Amino acid sequence: MTLIAIYHLHLQIITRGSGKSAVGATAYRSGDTLKNEYDAELHDYSRKRGIVHTEILLPENAPAEYSNRYTLWNAVEKSERYKTAQLSREIEIALPVELNRE
Question: CB–CB of 32/26 below 8 Å?
Answer without folding.
Answer: yes
